[in-house]
Specification:
- The chain is of the alpha+beta class.
- It is built from twelve helices and 17 strands.
- Helix 1 packs antiparallel against helix 3, helix 3 packs across helix 12 and helix 8 packs antiparallel against helix 9.
- The strands form three sheets. Strands 1, 2, 3, 4, 5, 6, 15, 16 and 17 form a nine-stranded mixed sheet that branches. Strands 7, 9, 10, 12, 13 and 14 form a six-stranded antiparallel sheet that branches. It has a two-stranded antiparallel sheet with strand order 8-11.
- Helix content is 35%, strand content 23%.
- Bound molecules: glyoxylic acid and manganese (II) ion (2 copies).
């Protein structure tokens, strides 16, 4: 049997109907939302039709299990609050197409909450042992909903955790989500390593007050503290970071968020990423010291939420070679080896078995946005490389 590109593309377009944003091909399908749960139930039917056994674990990870030992392929089907149609979905639907058409045993997975509504790659982090379930259950999303409450929404579907020993390795196909392949007009990236990440919530508490009567020098304004923190942090990072290091304050909750009130409290996400674990630790020290000094200089309190993180990981050399060999056949002179600046479930799975990843280009390097897209010819080239690599492994 050979892969059927039309069937693969149709299944990808079918999946984007769940949580369709109505803007371009974008999707709104965060973990455990109605759209996410409906998509997972639909995927379970697709898995069954492909001749695999669908299996939900206690945290919403959906497996399609082959009989006996198999290679595991997949990614995630949840999205960012404003997400693209391919981030995660591509790896899951490519996995399913390879499982349908391969002569070797292939299992499929769609991990839950890769996009971090609750943590960082939550579902695969729990499965791999990187995040204890009791700790995960206490994590809350930005609206204060605990993970335990969210996963209970899928409780009626849940079986046991799947034994990782069923699988001989894991390969994840994904869009690059950055500009390199698109800019170089290349079709395939064979991933060498995935960067590490640290992520936590920080709060500044000051004094909520009247915006007309409170003199500037008496204010303990949470927004002003955040603004000063952001500027100071950028300056203090300069001696520590490289051009590859990134940091982001992506979610800010200002209280009470009203034009005529000096804000008394702000809680915000603080995330930083780098390929060097020591650098991540040095940056943590700077984050904490800067926040404490900013708070103390303004007569405010600072508090830190739990620090979540994943270490940088290298991809398995044998699996990388299989992908590189297939890339050279399918896209000669149009592929490269490259690191991943985005996080992936593969990071967690690397704790359990050999893992590798391949990328296809993202048009204009855009992702985590409704505009995210990839030429269909590149999607199909990636599918062919994945399928070719899997078939050389046995
Ligand atoms: C995963 O989506 C990431 O944030 O890198
Ligand atoms: Mn992803
Ligand atoms: Mn993502």
């Amino acid at each position: 049997m050979s892969i059927k590109p039309e069937r693969f593309l149709k299944s990808l377009h079918d999946l984007r109907q769940f949580g369709s944003s109505g803007v371009g091909k974008g999707v709104v399908r965060p973990a455990f939302s109605d759209a996410d749960i409906a998509a997972r139930k639909w995927l379970a039917d697709q898995i069954k039709d492909a001749g695999l056994t669908p299996h939900f674990d206690p945290v919403g990870n959906l497996f399609g299990l082959a009989d006996g030992p198999s290679i595991l392929l997949g990614s995630h089907s949840d999205s960012q609050p404003e997400g693209g149609w391919l981030d995660g979905a591509l790896g899951v639907m490519a996995a399913l197409e390879v499982a349908r058409s391969s002569n070797v045993p292939v299992s499929v997975v769609s991990f839950q909450d890769e996009e971090g509504r609750f943590g960082v790659t939550t579902g695969s982090a729990i499965w791999s042992g990187n995040l204890p379930l009791t700790q995960a259950d206490a994590l809350c999303d930005h609206a204060g909903v605990p993970f335990a409450e969210a996963r209970a929404r899928m409780g009626d579907l849940a079986g046991d955790f799947v034994a990782p020993s069923r699988f001989t390795g894991y390969i994840e196909m994904h869009i690059e989500q950055g500009p390199t392949l698109d800019a170089e007009r290349e079709q395939i990236g064979v991933v060498t390593e995935i960067v590490g990440i640290r992520d936590m919530k920080i709060s500044f508490d000051g004094q909520q007050n009247h915006a007309g009567t409170t003199p500037m020098h008496l204010r303990r304004d949470a927004f002003q503290a955040l603004s000063a923190f952001n500027t100071e942090l950028g300056e203090r990072f300069q001696n520590v970071v490289t051009p590859c290091t990134v940091w982001t304050i992506g979610h800010v909750s200002l209280h009470p968020n009203a034009s005529s009130i000096v804000p008394g409290r702000v809680t915000f996400s603080m995330q930083w990423r780098d390929g060097d674990a020591d650098r991540l630790t040095r940056m943590e020290g700077i984050v904490r010291t800067t926040a404490k000094e900013i708070a103390s200089a303004r007569g405010m309190e600072v508090s830190f939420g739990p620090l979540l993180g994943l270490e940088p990981v290298d991809m398995d050399t044998k699996l990388q070679s299989a992908l590189a060999g297939a890339a050279e056949q399918i896209a000669p002179n149009k592929w490269r080896r490259m690191p991943s600046g985005a996080l992936h479930d593969a990071t967690n799975v690397a704790k359990l078995m050999p893992v590798a990843m391949l990328f296809v280009p993202s048009i204009n390097g855009v992702s985590h946005a409704f505009e995210e897209d990839t030429d269909e010819a590149d999607l199909v080239a990636g599918l062919r490389v994945l399928s070719g690599a899997v078939n050389t492994l046995f």
